[in-house]
Amino acid sequence: MSPRTSEKFKEIRDIRQQQLKDAAIELFGMKGFAATKISEITNKAELSHGLFYHYFKSKEELYVTVLIELLETLIEVIDEAEEQSESPLMQLEWLTDVTHSGPLKDGVYRHILIMQALYSDHLPAETKENIVERYRSMVIRIALIIERGQITGDFIEGDPEELAIYHLSLVHGLLLSNARKMVPIEVSVDKVLRQLKPCEDRGEHA
Questions:
Q1: Residue 100 CB contacts under 8 Å (≥ 6 apart), including other chains
Q2: pLDDT on residue 206
Q3: CA distances (Å), 33 to each of 67, 119, 200, 205, in order?
């Protein structure tokens, strides 16, 4: 096999594998792990059922793979946020804006999938611990931004990790609320971060 042919083969393989991952994120997010069948994933990806096993040994392996990759991507996005500016406030503004940009449903499925995994009881203990540890790492990274912002006076006093969890909870809630389309809103970065700002920065009276 020539180098060019080998490279083309790898490109096709990567594309098909990503198609399976994308389909899995949506279906796992909508239906949960147990209710999702491999045949549904392959149908969604428009690939043959047999082809699935060229890329993943089982549904469980695919589930864990997409979860780990999602969490690693979120941590990479935090890295990008820190590269945007030296200001902790601007870093968190950028991160919040990115979280709510792009196709809404994709963001919703990603967040639902992560939340499901954190509270699931079907994953092996070691796998669950790995996922929880990566999520906690993300919380700590955001907490460090908040802590630096407290030093500069951009954010309110309080336990940085607790404030990071408050922030993430609001982000998750807004994504889910808009996904239901009952009372859709245009997400405002300023309003999302208002809970973290001192009273004078919010135009309020202390």
A1: 107, 171, 174, 175, 187, 189, 192
A2: 42
A3: 12, 12, 46, 48
Q: What is the pLDDT of residues 3-54, one digit of tens each?
A: 555 565 466 668 899 999 999 998 998 888 889 999 999 999 999 988 899 9
Q: What pTM value is reported for the model?
A: 0.80
Reduced to 3 states (helix: H, G, I; strand: E, B; else coil), residue 205 is coil
Q: What is the CA radius of gyration of the chain?
A: 20
Coil, strand or helix at 23: helix
Q: Which residue do the tokens 């060019």 mark?
A: 4
Torsion of CA 19, 22, 25, 30, to 10 degrees: -90
Cα separation of 197 and 170, whole Å?
A: 15
**pLDDT exceeds cutoff 60 at 122:** yes
In whole angstroms, give the CA distance from residue 106 to residue 141. Answer: 23
d(CA 118, CA 156): 28
Q: What is the pLDDT of residues 138-175, one digit of tens each?
A: 999 999 999 999 999 999 999 999 999 999 888 888 77
What burial class does residue 82 get, using C-beta atoms within 10 Å of its C-beta: 0-12 exposed, 13-18 middle, 19+ buried?
middle
Distance CA 26, CA 152 (A): 40
